[in-house]
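User: My notes are a mess, but here's the protein and pyridoxal-5'-phosphate's SMILES. Can you give me a structure?
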Amino acid sequence: MSRKLAHRLDAIVPSVTLAMNARAAELRARGVDVFAFGVGEPDFDPPKFVLDAAKAAVDQGVSKYTAVTGVAPLKKAICDAATRWRGYTPTADQVCVSVGAKHVLFNIALALYEPGDEVIIPAPYWVSYPEQVRLVGATPVIVETSESDGWRMSPEALAAAITPKTKAIILCTPSNPTGAAYDEAQLGALLDVVRRHDVWLVIDEIYADLVYDHFKYVSAPALAPDLRDRIVIVDGVSKSFAMTGWRIGWSVAPVALAKAIETIQGQSTTNATAVAQQAALAALTGPRDALDAMRATFEARRDVMVTGLNSLSGVRCRKPEGAFYVFADCRGLYGIKAGDRVIATDDDVASWLLDSARVATVAGGAFGAPGYVRFSYATSEARISAGIASIRSAISHASRI
Ligand SMILES: Cc1ncc(COP(=O)(O)O)c(C=O)c1O
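Assistant: No problem, the inputs look usable. Here's the predicted complex:
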C-alpha cells in the first residue's frame, strides 16, 4: 500500500475552469472556431513598458534568487499602490510576493486552516477556494447567496454561518464568477459582523481595479482600520495588467501571519520569478493609462454581453459591477433536445453551447451555483456579438420536449 496517493487527494477535484479551457483548446486545435467565453484571463497584452522592463531586467542579468517575500522596490510599490488605490498604507513587512494570487491563497490556507476549522465561503465562489480549504484538511462552509440579492452575502447570513469552529471568511469582490462587488455600506455591514467574532477575513481583491459605472471600490482595511489585525488581502497583476502568465500576486497580512507565510514560501517556492517581479514593479509604478483603457474596453464589452444574453430566449442575467464575467440564469434552456439527450442541467447547457454554438463557457455548478453559466467577456465586442448570434441561432434551431 506504500505506493498509494495521499488521502488528501480524495477530498479535492481538478479545476473545472481549466478543464473547460482544455476542451475548447482541443476543438480549436481541430480547426473549430470557438467563441472564448470560458476564459478567465484578459485577451490584452500587458502594457509595453512592462514588457520593456522585463527585457531590460533580462539584459541586466536579473537571474538570481531574490528575498523570499520579494524584492524591496516591488514591496514598496505594493505598499504605495495600496495607499494610492485602496486607501490604507501597509508596511513592507506585511507583504509577501508569491507566484500568482492562487499561490497567495494557498500560502494563506497552509498558514491558517487546519483539520477541525471551518472556513466560510459565499457561493457562487471561485473554484479554488473550497478545494484549497479541503486540501489542508479544513472544512469549507458554503453560504448561499442569490441573484436577487446581487449575489452578495448578507450580514445576517454571515452571522448565522459563524460557529466556534470558524477560522476564516473568504470574500471575493468583485467576484469571479458573478462580477458582483460590495459597496461601502454592504462591506461595512459584513465588517460589523466580523468585528464581533475572533475570525480571519481573507479578501481577494484580484479584480478590484476592474469596476464599472463609476462603482467606488472600497478596501476593508481602509474602511475598518480597527480590524487590520485580522484582515488578509490577496491581490496581484494577473487581471488588471493582463499579466496572468507572469505569475505575480501578493498578500498583505498582519505581520505575524506575514512571517508565517514567509516561512511556508521559504520551504516551497522560495521567491516568485525575479524577472516577473521586475515586470510587476513596472506595472505598479508606470502610467495607469493602459489599465484605464482596458477597464473602459471591458465596460463596453460587459454591456454588449449583458444586452446580448438578455435578448436570448431562455437566458437572463444581471449587470455585474466588475471583473469580466456575466453569470447568467440558463434554466430557461432546460428541455431543449441535444442529440438523444434533453438539457436538464447547467453542465448540459455548457456542453450544448460548445457543441451547437461553438461557445465555450463554464457551468455554474463548478462555482456552487447550478442552473447558471459563466460567460467571460475577455474577448472583443465583435466576437461577443458573433457568439451571441451563434447561440441565438442554436436556440432557434433547437427542438424542445
Ligand atoms: C477570484 C480569483 N482569485 C485568484 C485568481 C488567481 O489569480 P492568479 O492568476 O494571479 O493566480 C483568480 C484567477 O482566475 C480568480 O478569479
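The longest strand covers residues 166-172.
User: Great, I'll file this with my notes.
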